[in-house]
Amino acid sequence: MPRQRFCSTLAQMHEKEWNMKVNDRVTVKTDGGPRRPGVVLAVEEFSEGTMYLVSLEDYPLGIWFFNEYGHPDGIFVEKA
Question: Which Pfam family would be a valid example here (predicted)?
Answer without folding.
Answer: DSRB
